[in-house]
Design brief:
The chain is an alpha+beta fold and 182 residues long. The protein has one domain: Alpha-Beta Complex (endopeptidase fold (from Nostoc punctiforme)). The chain has five helices and eight strands. The chain has a six-stranded antiparallel beta sheet with strand order 3-8-4-5-6-7. The chain has a two-stranded antiparallel ribbon with strand order 1-2. A hairpin with a 3-residue loop joins strand 1 and strand 2. Helix 2 crosses helix 3.
Length: 182
């Protein structure tokens, strides 16, 4: 058959391309815009960020309790429920959604917009921690739970888990802490 591609070779190449595309989608998970009902990714002004959240301090422990309920839930790209799994910002949206009726953002960059910077020395349980995992200041996030640890939804094949901030991977990528509490 000379230089013609064999059917098995074409199948392997297609499988490799699909796997590479899936990997890119997973890596972009937390920083991507949510999908609208029409299926198109929300762009720029089509998702209006909510006003800054200033929740009462008394809600911190409720946020933590809700967050800890879903540790070990599978990661799902675009996921935002215990039944369907979580990506990092979907986890935050679900956890905060259980303690307030405010309109909530979806992406990590939108969460940064509605929260206030926290000095690392003032980090408290329930504050958000942000990481640059994909070349953007807010490409991944989690909820600080105390004792140098945070809860996050890592990536495909993983589960919602508790990790140390001084973990080699995350310590290098930490960008800042922010809070939604007044």
């Amino acid at each position: 058959m000379g230089g013609a591609e064999q059917p098995a070779d074409a199948g392997r190449r297609n499988c490799t391309l699909m796997l590479a595309g899936s990997l890119l989608a997973v890596l972009a998970g937390c920083s991507s815009a949510p999908r609208s009902r029409s299926g198109a990714a929300a762009q720029g002004g089509s998702v209006r960020p909510v006003a800054a959240l200033n929740l009462g301090e008394d809600l911190r422990e409720a946020l933590l309790a809700r967050t800890m309920l879903v540790v070990n839930t599978p990661y799902t790209y675009g996921g935002n429920s215990p039944e369907g799994g979580f990506d990092c910002s979907g986890l935050i949206q679900w956890a905060v959604g259980g303690i307030t009726e405010a309109r909530l953002p979806r992406t990590t960059s939108q969460w940064a917009q509605v929260s206030s910077p926290v000095d690392g020395r003032d980090l408290q349980r329930g504050d958000f921690v942000f990481f640059n995992t994909l070349g953007g200041r807010y490409s991944h996030m989690g909820i600080f739970v105390g004792n140098g640890q945070f809860v996050h939804a890592p990536s495909s094949g993983g589960t919602v888990q508790r990790v140390r901030l001084d973990n080699v991977y995350f310590a290098k990528r930490f960008t800042e802490a922010r809070s939604i509490f007044a």
